Amino acid sequence: MGRLEGRRAIVTGAASGIGRASAELFASEGARVLAVDRPAADLTFDNPAIVPFGQDISEDAAPGAIVAKAVEAFGGLDIVYNNAGVSGSTPVGETSDEAFDRQIGINLRAAFRISREAVPHLVKSGVGRLIFTASIMAKHTDNGLVAYSASKAGVVGMMRTFALELGRHGVTANAILPGAIATGMTAASFQHDEIAALWAKKAALKRLGQPIDIARAALFLASDDGGFVTGQALGVDGGLMLRV
Length: 244
Description:
Layout: E1 8-12, H1 17-28, E2 32-37, E3 50-54, H2 62-74, E4 79-82, H3 97-125, E5 129-133, H4 146-166, E6 172-178, H5 187-190, H6 193-202, H7 211-222, E7 233-236
């Protein structure tokens, strides 16, 4: 029997990278998964336990539509993995209001609204799990990451409040802080061998992370194995930040 047998999950940003790896891993462990991404994204999966749902999470109606679809399809909801996100790199003085608002809106606000919508169902579940993809840049930063770092730090702060308020109902809330992961979001940089090699060298494990590395951490937090873990920002970075 799988570690998520009978559980019902939402995974956002599920068309590629960490989201796709997580949706597939959750389903392989027995969960039924609503795989959410933009309507134009490729949401084809081989596992029939994964139900694709095209929805822009930044839209006002998105939280209600996403949660309602999961409950309709599965009869309830146990796990919400807020993984979808965007990034950008622009010096502070050149960061427009629109660029700042977009990253806050998708990385932080949308995750809050989906989580808030899901709370009654997670409480009813008895084994509710809220998981967020943050970033090591929630605790650190780099040139050009004013909006990204702000949004991911906000995710961690928000997660802790969810954990505190929902703990009495048996619902856990945690964030994963990935390091340098080879995903669609980072493809433009890591397609250059010298850049990929540089980031791999920085990590204690001397390699880039892969989406499955993060998916396995999410599986731990979603399963009974992570049932006494809540309010935590879990670094999954191959030891990237040990020297900082």
